[in-house]
């Protein structure tokens, strides 16, 4: 059976069209949580200083309002690389967008050691693991190490704090091990639905300091691999230069091949990504130890100042 990937065109970030489109997308993929469902809404909250690097507040707001209308118990959270979730939310306008809604913004702390299929153990937030459902609200970005970051990569934010950078240091130099790690983290998490914010994507470099690209797209699927495959197709990629897509196909993951997808709303060819610039060549996935320690110090200081 084909895997539905719902796509729609949204030309700019305005409350009414974003809210309408998000509702249509989630209804189309049958995201209808029972009353009382404990849900983590997981946007990309990478840094407080670069709004383009994070999921747009209006998209997150629309997702939360949709879920609250179903009577869900909603938390919004991430484990940012710099600062805390609340600090990022205050800086990028998310806290203001969610003000007045019956939910809380949480830092994905309380690591619990999860042994992945590869044998690697990593500290994933218990606050994520204890939810009934995760709504993964990713941002489409060029990525200087993985070429592109979308739905599957966004689950990496459920790994607590410095453990993300440590994983880069430990596994970044080993062929395809980091891509395997990202996939196995996704597989270890509770049931999830993914939505992508690509109204204005990030191009040329990333995941922090890229340039805007107007793609005018919102998309959703209950299968994050399928959603990413649809996006790769729209961007005109082939699997070989995209490490995470290639690893998904090698593992035989559902949704990793174009022929598996169906488009119940807009078709993939309706979106024009001509001119979308990619980082080339890719940088090493691993972090130098000095860079890692500098990042740890910066993160700690950001929590207090």
The span between the termini is 52 Å
Unreliable stretches = 295-305
Number of strands: 12
Structural domains: how many? 1
Structural class: alpha/beta
CATH architecture: 3-Layer(aba) Sandwich
Q: Helicity level, as a percent range? A: 25-40%
Give the CATH topology. Answer: Rossmann fold
Beta-strand content bin = 15-25%
Rg, rounded, reads 18 Å
Q: Order of SSEs, N→C?
A: EEHEHEHHEEEHEEHHHEEHHEH
Taking the sheet with the most strands, its summary is: 8 strands, mixed
Residue-averaged pLDDT = 92
Number of helices: 11
The general outline is: globular
CATH class: Alpha Beta
Q: How are the secondary structure elements laid out?
A:
Elements: E1 3-4, E2 6-9, H1 15-28, E3 38-43, H2 57-69, E4 73-78, H3 85-92, H4 94-98, E5 104-107, E6 111-115, E7 121-125, H5 126-129, E8 133-143, E9 147-149, H6 151-154, H7 163-171, H8 177-188, E10 192-203, E11 211-221, H9 224-234, H10 243-250, E12 261-262, H11 289-304
Parallel strand pairs: 1-12, 3-4, 3-8, 4-5, 8-10
Antiparallel strand pairs: 2-11, 6-7, 8-9, 10-11
Helix pairs in contact: 1-2, 8-10
Describe the overall structure.
- Helix 1 crosses helix 2 and helix 8 crosses helix 10.
- The chain is built from eleven helices and twelve strands.
- The C terminus is likely disordered.
- The chain has a single domain, classed as 3-Layer(aba) Sandwich (Rossmann fold).
- A hairpin with a 5-residue loop joins strand 6 and strand 7.
- 48% of the residues are buried.
- It is globular and about 45 Å long.
- It has 305 residues and is of the alpha/beta class.
- The strands form three sheets. Strands 2, 3, 4, 5, 8, 9, 10 and 11 form an eight-stranded mixed β-sheet that branches. Strands 1-12 form a two-stranded parallel ribbon. The protein has a two-stranded antiparallel ribbon with strand order 6-7.
């Amino acid at each position: 059976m084909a895997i539905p990937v719902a796509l729609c065109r949204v030309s700019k970030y305005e409350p009414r069209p974003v809210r309408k489109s998000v509702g249509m997308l989630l209804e189309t993929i049958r995201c209808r949580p029972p009353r009382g469902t404990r849900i983590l809404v997981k946007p990309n909250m990478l840094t407080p200083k670069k709004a383009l690097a994070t999921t747009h507040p209006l998209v997150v707001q629309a997702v939360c309002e949709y879920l609250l209308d179903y009577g869900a118990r909603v938390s919004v959270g991430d484990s940012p690389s710099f600062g805390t979730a609340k600090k990022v939310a205050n800086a990028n306008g998310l806290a203001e967008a969610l003000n007045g809604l019956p939910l809380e913004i949480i830092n994905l702390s309380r690591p619990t050691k999860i042994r992945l299929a590869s044998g690697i153990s990593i500290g994933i937030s218990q606050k994520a693991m204890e939810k009934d459902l995760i709504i993964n609200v990713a941002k489409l970005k060029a990525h200087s190490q993985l070429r592109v970051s979308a739905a599957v990569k966004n689950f990496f934010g459920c790994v607590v704090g410095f453990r993300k950078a440590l994983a880069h240091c430990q596994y970044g130099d080993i062929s395809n091990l980091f891509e395997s790690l990202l996939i196995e983290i996704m597989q270890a998490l509770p049931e999830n639905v993914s939505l992508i914010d690509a109204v204005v994507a990030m191009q040329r470099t990333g995941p922090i300091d890229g340039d805007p690209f107007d793609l005018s797209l919102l998309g959703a699927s209950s299968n994050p691999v399928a959603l990413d495959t649809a996006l790769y197709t729209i961007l005109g990629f082939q699997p070989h230069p995209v490490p995470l897509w290639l690893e998904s196909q090698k593992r035989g993951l559902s949704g990793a091949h174009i022929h598996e997808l169906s488009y119940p709303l807009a078709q993939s060819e309706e979106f024009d990504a001509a001119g979308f610039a990619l980082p080339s060549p890719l940088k090493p996935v691993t972090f130098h130890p000095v860079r890692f320690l500098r990042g740890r110090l910066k993160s700690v200081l950001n929590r207090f100042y």
